[in-house]
Specification:
This protein has six helices and eight strands; from the N terminus they run E-H-E-H-E-E-H-E-E-E-H-E-H-H. By secondary structure, the protein is of the alpha/beta class. The chain has one domain. Helix 3 crosses helix 4 and helix 5 packs antiparallel against helix 6. It is globular. The chain binds iron/sulfur cluster (SF4).
Length: about 160
């Protein structure tokens, strides 16, 4: 299966802080699937490192107050374009991000508080029929692993 994956989860240093967040368990899926790393914020044209953004009242705002909604929308559309081009109908995305969060995002106050919600890219992919799961969806990710030994790794909660 071809699966889009948040680039940072595969160890690419694409996060706003200039680092990555390699998830070893998800990286194991390369044994049985084609993983396609994507960073919607970079695809939208933002630099790395960059100021953090959060969604507030439907807009994506930089901590300094700059409105980046159009850039985030562009990144989402480019990610959808890649999914269609490569015929991928599934994505594993980083939770809490204003782009990639699928069920939880930060609340827009830059205080570390999370609320239920979707990032701009996750929402667009879902709207277009692509299955999106967070890296914390252990059971769903376990289903993707053929090797029974590796499957047990996913059956434990992920960071
Ligand atoms: Fe990772 Fe997504 Fe943020 Fe890019 S936009 S750094 S892929 S969480």
């Amino acid at each position: 299966m071809k699966i889009l994956v948040s680039a940072c989860l595969l160890g690419i240093n694409s996060r706003y802080c200039g680092g990555g967040c390699l998830n070893d368990h998800i990286a194991l899926l390369t044994d049985t699937h084609d993983l396609i790393p994507v960073c919607p914020e970079q695809l939208g044209g933002l630099p790395t490192p960059r100021d953090p953004d959060e969604i507030r009242e439907g807009r994506v705002m930089e901590k300094n107050g700059h409105d980046n909604t159009d850039i985030f929308q562009k990144g989402a559309e480019e990610t959808l374009r890649l999914a269609r081009l490569l015929k991928s109908d599934m994505a594993i995305l980083k939770q809490n991000s204003p782009s990639c969060g699928s069920t939880m995002i930060y609340d827009g106050t830059f205080s570390g508080k999370k609320i239920p919600g979707s990032g701009i890219t996750a929402a667009l992919l879902i709207k277009n029929g692509i299955r999106v799961i967070g890296e914390d969806s252990s059971a769903a990710i376990a289903e993707l692993m053929d090797d029974p030994e590796k499957k047990t790794l996913f059956e434990q909660p992920q960071d």
